């Protein structure tokens, strides 16, 4: 079962998500929170595999909450689920440590599929947001081609294992590192290669002959 924590300041949204996910069969909503503080508390207590996190909440935004969760070494997947599709929000959320950014208009079957994929270490992004992210990071890649040499041997090893389908946890075990350490290292690799996610980073590394 994939354990999920729902975080949204609107009870009706929580109720709707709970009913939607109950039909999945392999997803268990283990808790809910209505603001940043309770989200962090529930994450510590429940250790969910995935957190669905609203963007606009009392106390702190979803982006700030994601950053605090990562600072406190929460190792599960964080998916921002919001009505706001602004490119700036998407970028800030990914930089804060979120593993995905989905719009609340996402079809129910796609949301369920995204939760499953996120629990396996795959990043998620609503299709309508993808072009903007690719354009931004693609431009970044063109500007930073000279940074290819910054990839360490460990970076290349992580990419090699990722290209073979290994999850962050599996890579961490093989390299004697924590899952959170691998996730942070991958974020650094994404920035160096101008990549959006694991698949993009692997493809870019192969294209440049780095692995």
Give a short synopsis of this structure.
This protein is of the alpha/beta class and 211 residues long.
General description of the model:
There is one protein chain. Helix content is 55%, strand content 14%. The protein is of the alpha/beta class and 211 residues long. It has a six-stranded parallel beta sheet with strand order 2-1-3-4-5-6, with helices on both faces. Helix 7 (153-163) packs across helix 10 and helix 9 (179-193) packs across helix 10. The longest helix is centred in the middle third of the chain and has 17 residues, at 127-143. 37% of the residues are buried. The model is unreliable at 139-143 (pLDDT under 50).
**Main sheet specs:** 6 strands, parallel
- Bin the strand percentage: 5-15%
Q: What best-fitting shape do the alpha-carbon axes yield?
A: globular
What is the fold named in CATH at topology level of the largest domain?
Rossmann fold
Mean pLDDT: 87
What is the level-2 CATH architecture name of the largest domain? 3-Layer(aba) Sandwich
Per CATH, the class of the largest domain reads Alpha Beta
**What is the structural class?**
alpha/beta
In whole angstroms, how far apart are the ends? Answer: 35 Å
**In CATH, what is the homologous superfamily of the largest domain?**
Response regulator
**Distinct helical segment count:** 10
Q: Round the Cα radius of gyration to an integer and report it.
A: 17 Å
Instruction: Flag low-confidence runs.
Output: 139-143
- SSE pattern, N- to C-terminal: EHEHEHEHEHEHHHHH
**Proportion of residues in helical segments:** 40-55%
Q: Into how many domains do the coordinates divide?
A: 2
Q: Count of DSSP E strands?
A: 6
Strands of the widest sheet, in order across it, are: 2-1-3-4-5-6
């Amino acid at each position: 079962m994939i354990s999920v924590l729902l975080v949204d300041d609107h009870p009706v949204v929580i109720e709707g998500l709970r009913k939607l996910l109950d039909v999945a069969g392999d997803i268990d909503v283990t808790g809910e929170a209505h603001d940043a503080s309770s989200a962090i508390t529930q994450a510590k207590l429940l250790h969910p595999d995935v957190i669905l996190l609203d963007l606009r909440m009392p106390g702190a935004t979803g982006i700030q909450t994601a950053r605090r969760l990562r600072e406190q070494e929460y190792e599960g997947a964080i998916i921002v689920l919001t009505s706001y599709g602004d490119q700036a929000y998407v970028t800030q959320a990914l930089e804060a440590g979120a593993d995905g950014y989905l719009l609340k208009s996402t079809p129910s079957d796609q949301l369920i599929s995204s939760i499953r994929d996120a629990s396996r270490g795959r990043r998620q992004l609503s299709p309508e947001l993808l072009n903007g992210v690719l354009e931004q990071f693609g431009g970044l890649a063109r500007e930073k081609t000279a940074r290819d040499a910054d990839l360490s041997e460990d970076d290349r090893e992580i990419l090699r294992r990722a290209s073979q389908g290994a999850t962050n946890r599996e890579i961490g075990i093989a390299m004697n590192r924590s899952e959170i350490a691998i996730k942070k290292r991958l974020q650094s690799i994404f920035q160096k290669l101008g990549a959006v996610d694991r698949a993009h980073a692997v493809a870019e590394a192969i294209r440049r002959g780095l692995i």
